Amino acid sequence: MTEITLLLVDDQELLREGMAMVLGQAPGLRIIGEAGDGRAGALLARDRRPDVVLMDVRMPIMDGIEATRDIVANCPGTKVLILTTFDLDEYAFNGLRAGASGFLLKDAPSAELVAAVRTVAGGEAVVSPRITRTLLDHYQSGRVPTPAGASPLDDLTSREREVLVAIGQGLSNPEIAGQLFLSESTVKTHVGRVLAKLGARDRVQAVIWAHTHGLV
């Protein structure tokens, strides 16, 4: 199993300790640093190049949104997973627009937190079914942009359309592979083609696209 290195950025020390306890016990995960504000987190990410940064949003000195922008711009191999307290956290949506690979509620079960880290490290976005409805509500109110230059469904093959529907349902690549009886590498290829044809930056925008076009 390839080791996944983690950086924890949260201004609440007790929360960092709790996450460190959970993640530090998971096989294949290693915490290589902690920071109590966004600026320190961004600088530490540049220095240590973790695979995944777990990023709080509301912090002193520099918030998690600016820190995410900095990390995405300066650490191309590092993924950011936004942590938020509420479903309706505008900061979290801004974090997605800043280039985060998804967001997770802080009260998520330990197993869900570990799974989210592994998913993000594997190059996928975390789009929990629990927050998909909120994403769509924000889209419909004009606060989350639709993917620019989205292609018509006619541009998708029948298999790519099936994959898009599965993405819209919040399934991960392994889950899609099981549902469609495909290898994970084949699913990854299809996902890449779907995103390219839709003009979607990431899986989050693909979920929005699938729902707003009536596929889910």
Features:
216 residues, alpha/beta, Rossmann fold, Arc Repressor Mutant, subunit A, 2 domains, 5-stranded parallel β-sheet, 10 helices, 5 strands, globular
Molecular structure report:
This protein has helices at residues 13-24, 38-48, 64-74, 90-97, 110-121, 129-140, 158-168, 173-180, 184-198, 203-212, and strands at 4-9, 29-35, 52-56, 79-84, 103-105. The mean pLDDT is 82. The chain has 216 residues and is an alpha/beta fold. The N and C termini lie far apart (34 Å).
Q: For the terminal residues, how far apart are their CA atoms?
A: 34 Å
Instruction: State the secondary-structure class.
Output: alpha/beta
CATH-level-2 architecture of the largest domain: 3-Layer(aba) Sandwich
How many domains is the backbone divided into?
2
Topology order in helix (H) and strand (E) letters = EHEHEHEHEHHHHHH
In short, what is this structure?
The protein is an alpha/beta fold. The protein has helices spanning 13-24, 38-48, 64-74, 90-97, 110-121, 129-140, 158-168, 173-180, 184-198, 203-212; strands at 4-9, 29-35, 52-56, 79-84, 103-105. It contains ten helices and five strands.
What layout of secondary structure does this protein have?
Elements: E1 4-9, H1 13-24, E2 29-35, H2 38-48, E3 52-56, H3 64-74, E4 79-84, H4 90-97, E5 103-105, H5 110-121, H6 129-140, H7 158-168, H8 173-180, H9 184-198, H10 203-212
Parallel strand pairs: 1-2, 1-3, 3-4, 4-5
Helix pairs in contact: 2-3, 3-4, 6-10, 7-9, 7-10, 8-9
